[in-house]
Amino acid sequence: MKKSTSSTPVGEETYNQGKKKILIVDDEQVFLEQLREALQYSSLDIEIDTASDGIEALEKIELTRPDIVITDIKMPRMDGYTLLKEIQKKHPSIYVVIITAFGSVSGAVEAMKYGAYDFLEKPFNMNTLELSLAKIIRQQEILRENIELKGRIVQYAEGLDQLVGANPKMQKLYDQIITAADTNLTVLILGETGTGKELVARSIHSRSDRKAKPFMTINCAAVPENLLESEFFGHEKGAFSGAITQRIGKFEKAHTGTLFLDEIGDIPLDLQAKILRVLEDGKITRLGSNKEIDLDFRIICATNRPIQDMIKKELFREDLFYRISVFPIIIPPLRERKDDISLLVDHFIKKYSDKFNSPVRGVSREAMSQLLSYSWPGNVREMENVIQRAMVSSRSERIEYFPDLGKNLHEYVSSPEQDAAEAPTIWVDAGDGADYHSIKRTLLEQFERKYFEHLLNKHGGVIAEAARESGLNYKTFYLKAEKYNLTKKRSSQDS
């Protein structure tokens, strides 16, 4: 059985190092000794003590502080349920396994309600008990390591912003950041959406000798293709229709500092060639000008797209790839470092506690089990959103459960009827004498307008995100939306 709710917020527990101490509690002396002997010959690294009832068990718990208690239910002086309640009240870090010859579904539910990790009915298979104990020991080790490693994270705090993690892969990431910061090499950060690519870029900048200089960022996927060149290089007054004033581009603004090109894989090929030239000679020319401007800046790039595949498909220049990937850094997804989850939970709760005026100080064991078993496709960003939503809605010191985990937001904030009402619909009054091709053309135009407008509204006007959902490339989507005058009011949202 899976463990159930505990009364202890994560982050307030302490766990023993070395051999795990197990206390067996049962009034049947023969069974007590048999179980003790069986566990001594198991593969588990444990020390075993015994008690004949709940009162004796509580006395030994105060003296020896075991990691795990295995207890019968029916005993003189104090039964197993009462013992469980007392342990949860005074020593919530101790895991409790209930064993009984009087097993029932209601008994199991009762035990879990009071915080038992597992419920076994006599006679039980020793392998089942060993497996349950092994799981407990592993969880305790992970939590102990996290508690110890919290102190190690402090050494990385300066210049590493909000990066949180003690997993070996994160330790390697910290080392790479520190190494990259001590150089002026061009860095390419690779990682899935939500892993914290911009945080890594900012961390490199803030630890470098350019930390007091500008840190400029461009989300290449969020800027309309026809505006990207101006965004990068700037323009002179009158350079093109609508250029009523001079504009300084991001390259110039990043002079002496760092320029972070996020989602560089979304840059069109013709602009890739111009960026390559800037990286090679360190000069830019504003649109509408013939004057070259010498610049000194550091480039950090990032993408979640498969650049190597894009090169094969001739969607990304190979020479540019080699120019920007002098020092590659790969950010591990959250599913590959689940031992960091408790650290992240603690971090986000502390981060938003004052902001939301929230009483939340931790999560239950059941809630933590949810977080550990989830795959986190949206990575750390998704976790942060999940914790925020739970903190806003919780009125207690502990988050008991995450009901929305793994759900798409629209699954619980809107009904199917609402979704249907928001979906694009088309109709045309053909009138008399309208031919097939005219009707088809009119219907297609109505569909396109409604469709693109719907997606833009759904994604808050961010064309890149709307394009991804549509399955069209950015340029095609933008031109279609522009055809129906849907881009003008979106320009400020995308830039």
Q: Could you characterize what this model shows?
A:
With 495 residues, the chain is α/β, with parallel strands linked by helices. The protein folds into four domains: 20-149, Response regulator (Rossmann fold, 3-Layer(aba) Sandwich); 168-330, P-loop containing nucleotide triphosphate hydrolases (Rossmann fold); 334-410, Helicase, Ruva Protein, domain 3; 415-494, Arc Repressor Mutant, subunit A, CATH 1.10.10. It is built from 21 helices and 16 strands. A five-stranded parallel sheet has the order 2-1-3-4-5, with helices on both faces. Strands 7-10-13-6-14 form a five-stranded parallel sheet. Strands 8-9 form a two-stranded antiparallel ribbon. The two termini are 52 Å apart.
The radius of gyration computed from the alpha-carbon positions, rounded to a whole number of angstroms, is 30 Å
Proportion of helical residues: 40-55%
Beta strands, count: 16
- Report the uncertain regions: 1-15, 151-159, 409-433, 489-495
Q: From the 3D coordinates, which CATH architecture of the largest domain would you assign?
A: 3-Layer(aba) Sandwich
Query: What is the assigned CATH homologous superfamily of the largest domain?
Result: P-loop containing nucleotide triphosphate hydrolases
Alpha-carbon distance between the two ends: 52 Å
Mean pLDDT: 80
Class by alpha and beta content: alpha/beta
Number of separate helices: 21
What fraction of residues sit in β-strands?
Answer: 5-15%
3D shape: elongated
Largest sheet: 5 strands, parallel
Assembly state (oligomeric) = single chain
Query: Number of folding domains?
Result: 4
Lateral strand order in the biggest sheet: 2-1-3-4-5
CATH C-level name of the largest domain? Alpha Beta
Q: What is the CATH topology descriptor of the largest domain?
A: Rossmann fold
